Amino acid sequence: MISKTNRLYFVDAMRAWAILMMLQGHFVDGLLDNAFRDTTNVGFTIWSYFRGVTAPVFFTVSGFIFTYLLVKGDTRGFENPRVAKGIKRGLQLIFIGYLLRLNFWGLLVGEIYDSFYFVDVLHCIGFSILGIIGLYLLSTKKKLFFPISLISITIILFIFEPNYIKWSHAYLPEVLANYFTKANGSVFTIFPWFGYATCGAFLSLMFSKFKDYKFLYTIAISVAILLGLSLIFGSSELFLTLAETTKVQLFADVFFSNYLFIRLGDVFLVFAFFMLIRKILTHPTLLKIGQSTLSIYVVHYIILYGSFIGLGLYYFLNHTLSPNAVIIGAIAFMVACTSIALYYENHKVVIKANLRTKGLQITDTFEPWFVFATKLFRSYFIKLRIAVLKLFRLVKD
Predict the structure, then answer these.
(1) Residue 198 contacts residue 63 (beta carbons within 8 Å)
(2) What angle do CA 219, 20, 229 make, to 5 degrees?
(3) What domain range is 57 assigned to?
(4) Could you read off the pLDDT of 62-89 as tens digits, one per residue?
(5) What is the pTM (predicted TM-score) of this model?
């Protein structure tokens, strides 16, 4: 009754699919001419729907993988090495999220543009990881608290979304408010996207608990299909019934804007599909893509949006391509980004060593100039201080 392997190849394959969908989604959305964005066109409608599935799948899978590794060992609490690694990873994602939005030309004139403070997917995934770690640490002595809190947060965030999505959080500094509202230009916000991550974390706990059962996948696929179809085709009717029965306006608001639960249903169907074909999802390249999503994301952001200098494909080809050109370009873009990222992953140690060496060489080259500038600045500072003191005495007299 024991399965032969506990390796969840289908999760890496799902993550690979999600990152590739994100690449083509960003490329097409950014470069396709507005004249061809016809919602009556079947092809464009199908593309739009599946593009909307990408982010929920990515957040859910991110929460799934991290939590699955977090609870894998026997250690609990801060003694679990995955806690420290997770905190480091979460902060790293937030840092990279800000770094990719930094514009060096603005720094040269002493200005940080407002877009630097916009919150994107990396910021939210980073904070989602930190949030899951916090819930995990709180449940050290109460094991049931972890799964109950995870699924409860998902349901609460999704149900109350019509209320908190209207809040502008003007009482907060803009850099913090951007994590909770899109009013200032943020692409993603912590809420409700944290709900998909906690749902993925909850699913991983179920897999961890029953990972040795022979019929795990048979049951998991059946449940995923049932939940997926129920959420897609039945959740709206459920909230309409609740609104009519209880007269609670919140349920009516969810009914009129029920995209979160429907997208969660899509996520369950994607899980079911990848579990169903899991035996053919073992190609090393596919799994490597799924394990290199951060590098792929960074490469795609630099090429498409022109991180650091602002000169990317989006700058030159913004909403100008025809459907044929954008399809060919999207395929080439996916191949280029994944190839560069996989090359980096395969030669990461050598590349980092070379960068470190070049950095030391540059530091050694400019060190005399730095020392000279420091001495010059100190000299001018002393003279300025003396002048200010003399002026102060003169005014006092």
Answers:
(1) yes
(2) 35
(3) 9-323
(4) 999 999 999 987 788 888 999 999 999 9
(5) 0.87
